[in-house]
## 1
Amino acid sequence: MPERPFILLVDDEPEFLAMYREILSELPSHPEVHTTHSGARAIAMLESVAYAVLVCDLKMPSMDGLQVLAIVRRKFPHLRTVIITGLVDEQYRIRAYAMGVDLFIGKPKCTEESQRLLDCIESLLDLEQQSQSGFRGIQQKSLVDIIQLECLCQSSAVLRVRGPAGDGSIWFIDGQIIDAEVPGVGGEDAFRRILSWKTGNFEILPAEPERQRSIHNSNQGLLLASAQAIDESTPNALQAGDKPAEGEASRALRRFDGVQFGLVSTRDTGVISDAWALDSAETMAKWLAQTLAKFQALGEEWGVGDLRQLDATTLQHQVLMARHGGFDFAVAFDKSTPASERQATFNQIKQQWES
């Protein structure tokens, strides 16, 4: 079994420490949560334990959250950091992101906000150690991670990205992606172009509520469609009829009409078991595991039972996703394929893989 991650909570108010500790105990990763009411004590604790995430209040006596963060960024550059505060001020938020904080979020006031905090911190725990390719605030993270965290936090902001091909911007209002722009291109085309950049720098800027909306796709639909469009435009991406990687699922997928790409990954962990016609399979596997887990949790909260299947519509494809046995499946079909045929094919692929 994987080791439980360690989380350090820092807040000068004992009642908030107790509340956060109770909230974080509900995380699927079952972290071990330590607490302290002092920034100086937090720095000392970080010296002795390999914490995965630091959650720190902003306004504290003697040493505030930004001062703690400044020290942490120097001494523990790979530590994931969260500023949580009752003072949601745009200037503080900009300063925190400029210093490299992973997440700046208000203190939860209701069950929905507590769940949002849980989702965000679990996403941070799920992030794999990034290589030198990646996007940098102060620490490395993928652009998809940055976008998903802004969506999860229901942020209103502008994400300015400086990539190898120039500058681009993505606008968020209440966690929804409403527009994107690179020189000469806007909307979903611009978003796809920004998402294709592998390295660069980013900064979070104040929201522009007057910005006109040009993107109407859902966040997850937009990310999925963009990832697939990038795959299709990549010369090294496998196309239908090409020889796929070795594996039973790959060979099975090739035999079915209408299948455009497919992925099989180990349930919950997102470790790829097989993939076909996907260049960015790791990104897709991570997105698939997170999406299915969140919808499973939603089904449990509503008392409607276990998740059976998700169907997603993109501009190019109809994507069927499900958990079956110990695996997560995602199979994309040509949109002209009849629904009954898609479902029958998807069922056969799942059964053939597990047999």
## 2
Amino acid sequence: MRKYIRLQIIALVVGIGLMALKFLAWWLTNSNAILTDALESIINVVAGFFALYSLYLAAKPKDENHPYGHGKIEFLSAGFEGAMIFFAGITIFGKAGYNIFNPQELHQIDLGLLLTLITGSINFLMGKILEKQGRKADSMTLIASGKHLKSDAYSSLGLIIGLALLYFTGITLLDNLVAGIFGLFILITGLRLMRNSVAGIMDEADHLLVDNIVKMLEEKRPDNWIDVHNFRVIKYGATLHIDCHLTLPWYYDTRQSHSEVKAFENLVKAHCKSPVELFIHVDPCEPVSCHLCLKKDCPQRQHPHEQRITWTYTNIMRDLNHSVVTG
């Protein structure tokens, strides 16, 4: 985690330097489009500080007050960043609309273009690095920071296009139109980040993640695992907390059941890139389970095997034993 904290510190320092360059470009050109870029840089810096603190807090070990760790702070960090981006988008959109009716004289557009190109390129490179490392660490904070910087770079690209058109046509209205378009783009980016943050705080199911784990379990399940249900995954930062019910032969003693649970746990941990904690409740099989049980050497079988139930996202999430009727 320390290397990700160092990476965020580098991104923060770079962000402060880029913010200074963008405000210099705005001061030289008096361009509203460049001002939108400069204003968003303030958001980058403020969000960068919060992201840095979040990474530091998320790295702290569990304690008595936080038995599941401090990972949830990453969702708050992403939500805070999204709210800041949303506010910047509203401000930019409003100022662009105001200046359509109250235009300002622009100058030194060529220099503004050059500075915007430099800052946009650096932002894109930094955002690409943060997002890549964030996905590797499964850190929502780093991913959000990376997406933010990349969206800033895309905005800069749009500004460059708009300013180039303005430079060659002399139509000052283009400056405010471009600012308004990218103000709207920034606003939508903020909304998406806030939505993802709320989803994480509310423990919304990650369908792709759960489906990926379930497909692996279906492919590698041994005959002793008669049924898995009430399967749930909760994310605390980079850590996954998984709990489920595992149905085993009723005559297994404690040591045998523990061995199967350990095998289940090792299989899931080996498959997932993120740290995993599992809480597995063992259920004994019942006579009705015989219809679905794949165990060929069962000494207590009371009914013949009728059907193999394929474990899927839909049926493994239910708090209900599988059956021939329901699947």
## 3
Amino acid sequence: MTRIRLRPTPSAQSVPGSHHLRRSLLVGLLAVAAIAPAAVAQESEVIESPVPGAVAAPVYPVTFIDDEGTTVVIPAFPERLISLSPAITESVFALGAGDRLVGGTDYDDFPAAAVELPDVATFSGVLMEQVVAQQPDLILAAGNGFTPADDIARLRELGFNVAVFYAETHEEVLGALRRLGVAIGASQEAYLLTDRIAADLDRVADALTMVTTRPRTFYQIGSEPEIYAPAPGSFLADLIDLAGGDPIVTEDPAVYSISEERILAADPEVIIVADAVWGVCPADVAARPGWGGLSAVVNGAVRPVDDTTITRPGPRIAEGFAQLARAIHPDLAISGFRPDPVLCATAGTVRAG
């Protein structure tokens, strides 16, 4: 199976740029993209059901090790859940437990029902009073500082049960989803979901074995006030490589801004407009002074994408990988995925297989 590596995109504080850029990066990666700590968290032990292929209902109390290596004891079925990241929120809904969520973040955007959740976290951190008001049985936090460590410590001091989730690779995303299932009492649903995601990832990887070209690919993360691109060795650079493109990257692994001179010199054959959801469209890119002669512009290969689906490591990870692969190789045939979203209401969107 192709190994999709999820590495952290810089936090909202570490990258200069517009609100749109910071929101796009954080919404995409807040939940589970992180660098693994020295202590490797072990996967929770799941009791197998006597029925082949099934997972037995949990017997409480349930004890498991979260993705930061913390032993979490859940005394009873958690009826009231709080999510502190959009990817975790989306995952809880995907596991059929969205009706038990009593709080989320002000940047939850999928599914539609998630938007209506009471906001208990913002870009600035956790809103403690709102959490206390909801009296959750279990709080689902994001690792590697995306939920501030001080906030996690404070929540535990207040007596709340907190479990932390994140991953580095798509295989670890699947493991994190299974651990989340254990935590919220949805183990069977988690195993069914992750089996389907794994099969979907395999289909994309199989389709990419037919690719014979690797176009120079510029992934525009954001464009205000500067232009931003994947850094060398970053999650996005790796993902573009796996999706059959030759990524155009910044000069420094710690820097996500890129000069126009570097882009023009690289002459991208494909330009992916990831900030299309914030109103930046292919026509805007093509109209920049000096960009009209770029191969991607000349050949009409400037394509908007739904960046959140591509960069959010949750239940839509295979859908995002397929969308990215088709953006780079629009003739790629991948069966079983929904058509890609229509953005900018213009040509340039890519086709579903």
## 4
Amino acid sequence: MSRIDFALWDAVGGYGGGNEPMADVYDRHIRLAQEIEAAGWHSYFVIEHQNSPLGRITAPTVFLTAVARATSRLRIGAMMWQLPFYHPLRLAQEVAMLDQLSRGRVEFGTGIGVHEHEFIRWGVDYYQRAAIAGEVLELVKRAWTQDEVTFEGKYFKFDEAIPQPKPFQQPHPPIWAAVHSDAAIEFAAKGNYHVSQNLDTDAVIARKFDLYRKVWREQNHPGPMPRIFLQRQVHVAETDEQAHAEARQYLVAREGGAVPVGGGPIEKTRIGWGSNARGMGRDSERPDDKARGETMRLARESYDYNLENGLAVVGSPQTVIRVLEASRKKIGYDIFCTNHKIGRMPADLVSNSIRLFSKHVVPAFK
């Protein structure tokens, strides 16, 4: 088998939890990070959302500091920190502190966010999010590599700021771009950033990662090519039949999709999902986003569509190993990130899936 590094994407809180104290939820997920470290996983990721039922990581750096102090080798990060919501120098300092406290284990995942309602509720211009994020990222890099930062942009202005501390990793932690559109893929390649994807079909992602590699080579960047990260929903059981029986009802459901949009508690609020039912405002009608919306619709309606297009990997450990080896050759990733918490799947099924993946799949690709 070719080498693949494995990451776990942890939907902390998610649709579950009920009346369970969040302190207990956080502790349980910190123990999960310890378990996957012992099993030889490469990294552990969460995602930031604001005003959302999709998780309870509204301050990724705070939670990841707790994870860092409970582990010693596991790399940690958010995929992604939502850059438009941050004061850039405070973000730079917080992530640098996390990198120091973890002794250089941070993976800095960046993105602009996709859900319009999150921006409306915080009074941030959704349609300026890419431009705001561009300034934030530029300032974070300056704060990590310069003794002082003087900057005058459209959204931020600093006069001889002196950000501290600097990161443990030099010159800075790996920077990831969580991307979907061709324009974002090209931005990541030109910036020499590592790149991640999760929502498109295998065929579409293979084309986009080929575009990334092409544009990256055209830039004549020094050093090795950045890493390529693919996230998928995964369910493993002792046999193929058992795995499919367990996964089917949770995968083919509104909340079972990779990005469940529409319905739920958000729909019942005054603002709802924003100005478009697909949750992305006017951007919902852009060709690439519209195509991705159709992919998500089909995934909610057809179990076989998920499997045939790589959106989910379901089966026994042996089947999962075969599927991953084939998809790695087709797509060309070197980090595979698993999401085992599919919609409202019960905790015991999720735990068994992670246990089997750790025991059988992770060692097969060392």
